[in-house]
Design brief:
Number of domains: 2
Low-confidence stretches: none
Distance between the termini: 16 Å
CATH topology of the largest domain: Rossmann fold
Strand content: 15-25%
Order of helices and strands: EHEEEHHHHEHEHEHEHEHEHEHEHEHEHH
Radius of gyration: 22 Å
Oligomer: single chain
Helix content: 40-55%
CATH class of the largest domain: Alpha Beta
Strand order of the largest sheet: 3-4-2-1-5-6-7-8
Structural class: alpha/beta
C-alpha cells in the first residue's frame, strides 16, 4: 500500500511537530507500507518559532531515508518579509496586511508557501497513492491537500496534532474580537476539508469536539514517547547537586510567571548544591522573563534546541522536571508530559491545568501539581531534603501503565486505522 504523508515540519527539524509524522512513517514502513513524505527543507538548526518561518531556498530534493522516501521543497514566505521590518509591524499597515491575508484564507504565516502548491499536484500526477495523510497545522496545507486529493480522486486523512489556533482552547468570553474573527474564519475554511476526509485523527476527543468532527470518522492517536530511544538511556543522576530541569518550549503567558516564582522562592533559601536548567525554553520573551525572575548563578539557560536523544538523557539525569500548566485553557498540554513521566522522576507543574496534565500526574503518582508558587516551592524543598538524606528520590511512577502511550504503540493504532480504510473488514 502506497501512502503520501504531507507535513510542513519534518526532521532534521528538531520540533516535536516533526517527530509525530516521522514516527508515523516509521510505523507504517515497519508494517509493510510504501511511505513517501512531502515536506519542506529544514537545516536542523532552527531554535525559536521564528526560525521555522524563515525562507529556505534550497532546490527541490529527494532524500531516501529508512522510514520513507522524502521529497523536500524550497520554502519562501512573503509574510516573513513583511514582518521583519519594524516600521511595518509598528503601524496599521501590518494589521491591514494581516487582515487581508486572513480574508483570502492564509491563516498562518508558515502556511503561505507556493512550493507545496507546485509540487503536490506534480507528485500526484507522477505516482499512484492509495491514501494521503496530511498533518495540521498549518491548516492551509490541509486545505491544499483536500483540494488536490479530491481532484485526483485519492482518499485523504487529516491528523490534527493541534487545533487550528491555540485560543480555540480558551473560554470564548475571554477572547478579543480579532481572535474570535480568526477562529470563525478557520472554522469556515476548514469545514470542507473535514467533511470530505475519510478519517480525522487527533490527540483527544475534546480537540475533535472543538473542530466539530463527526464521531464516525474520529480516531485518537496520542503523541507518546519514543520507547525505543528510552531503552538506550541510562540514568546518571549526580550525587553532588540537586538538578531541576525544564526541557522544551515554555510560553510567554501568565502561567509561566507562576512556575518561575516557585523556583525563585525555593532558590531564595540559598541552596548552593542546586542546579536549575532550562533547555531550549523558547523565544526571546521567554528567555528575558527567565533571566529577570531567576537572576541566580545556579540557573543555566541552554537556548538552542538539542536532539531528542540528548533531551531525554537530560530528563533522565534530573531529579525533578518542571513545567507550567494551562490554567484557563481547555485540554491543552505539551507532548513533553509523556517523556517526563517515562523518566520516572518527580514532576512539578505550576499552575494546575485542571485538565490532562493533572489527570496524568494524579494517575501516575508522579509529582505535585498546584496553583500556588508557595506550594510549588514547598514541594521542591521536601524533595531536596529527601535527596540530601537518601542521595536520591523514590519513584512511584508505574511505567507499565504508561507503555500503551509510547509512540510505537500509538503508531500501531494509526497503522491499523488507515489499513481498515483500504481493506475494510
Amino acid at each position: 500500500m502506497n501512502i503520501l504523508i504531507v507535513t510542513y515540519t519534518y526532521p532534521p527539524a528538531k520540533s516535536v511537530n516533526g517527530f509525530r509524522p516521522y514516527h508515523f512513517a516509521k510505523a507504517l514502513t515497519a508494517a509493510g507500507w510504501k511511505v513517501s513524505v512531502l515536506t519542506r527543507h529544514f537545516t536542523g538548526q532552527e531554535r525559536i518559532p521564528e526560525d521555522y518561518s524563515r525562507p529556505n531556498r534550497l532546490p527541490f530534493a529527494i532524500d531516501r531515508q529508512p522510514e520513507a522516501l522524502v521529497y523536500r521543497v524550497p520554502f519562501y514566505n512573503s509574510w516573513f518579509n513583511y514582518f521583519q521590518y519594524a516600521w511595518i509591524r509598528n503601524t496599521g499597515l501590518w494589521k491591514m496586511i494581516y487582515f487581508i491575508q486572513l480574508l483570502v484564507g492564509r491563516t498562518h504565516q508558515e502556511s503561505y508557501n507556493k512550493y507545496f502548491k507546485i509540487y503536490l499536484p506534480t507528485l500526484l500526477k507522477q505516482k499512484s497513492f492509495e491514501l494521503i495523510l496530511v498533518e495540521s497545522g498549518p491548516t492551509n496545507l490541509v486545505r491544499l491537500v483536500s483540494r488536490y486529493a479530491m481532484k485526483y480522486k485519492v482518499p485523504y486523512a487529516i491528523d490534527f496534532r493541534d487545533a487550528y489556533y491555540h485560543d480555540m482552547y480558551r473560554d470564548p468570553k475571554t477572547l478579543t474580537w480579532n481572535k474570535k474573527i480568526k477562529i470563525q474564519l478557520e472554522e469556515r475554511y476548514m469545514s470542507v476539508a473535514i467533511r470530505n476526509a475519510v478519517k480525522v485523527i487527533s490527540l483527544s476527543n475534546a480537540w475533535l469536539d472543538l473542530l466539530k468532527v463527526p464521531a464516525a470518522v474520529r480516531t485518537i492517536v496520542e503523541n507518546g514517547f519514543d520507547e525505543t530511544a528510552w531503552k538506550q538511556i541510562k540514568k546518571n543522576q549526580p550525587v553532588n547537586r540537586f538538578v531541576i530541569s525544564s526541557i522544551g518550549t515554555l510560553y510567554d503567558q501568565p502561567v509561566l510567571n507562576e512556575l518561575l516564582k516557585s523556583i525563585a522562592l525555593f532558590l531564595n533559601q540559598g541552596h548552593q548544591d542546586v542546579q536549575v536548567r532550562f533547555i531550549a525554553p523558547g523565544g526571546q520573551a521567554v528567555l528575558s522573563k527567565i533571566k529577570h525572575l531567576l537572576p541566580y548563578e545556579n540557573v543555566h539557560l541552554e537556548e538552542h534546541r538539542i536532539s531528542y536523544q540528548d533531551a531525554i538523557q537530560c530528563a533522565a539525569d534530573s531529579h525533578v522536571l518542571i513545567y507550567h500548566g494551562w490554567k484557563g485553557w481547555s485540554e491543552l498540554s505539551g507532548t513533553k508530559i509523556y517523556d517526563y513521566l517515562r523518566s520516572g522522576n518527580k514532576i512539578l507543574v505550576v499552575p494546575s491545568d485542571d485538565g490532562p496534565i493533572k489527570k496524568w500526574l494524579t494517575r501516575m503518582k508522579a509529582g505535585v501539581i498546584t496553583d500556588s508558587p508557595e506550594e510549588g516551592a514547598s514541594a521542591l524543598q521536601q524533595w531536596y531534603e529527601e535527596w540530601k538524606t537518601n542521595g536520591s528520590l523514590e519513584s512511584n511512577t508505574d511505567l507499565a501503565d504508561l507503555l500503551p502511550y509510547s509512540r510505537e504503540a500509538q503508531g500501531k493504532i494509526l497503522e491499523q486505522t488507515l489499513r481498515s480504510l483500504l481493506i475494510p473488514g
